[in-house]
Amino acid sequence: MTNIFNVDNAFFRFMSKVCDVFLLSVIWLICSLPVVTAGAATAAINAVAIKAVRNEEGYIFRSFFKAFTQYFKNATKIWLLTLVMAMVLTGDLIFFYRLGNLIGALGAGAAFLLLLLLGLTAMIIFHDLVWFRNGAKATIIHSFKIAIGFLPYSAALLILFAAMVYGIYVSVGLMVFFTLFGAGLIAYVSAYLWRKVFDKLDNRQHKVIKI
Question: Is the dihedral of CA 35, 36, 42, 44 positive or negative?
Answer without folding.
Answer: negative
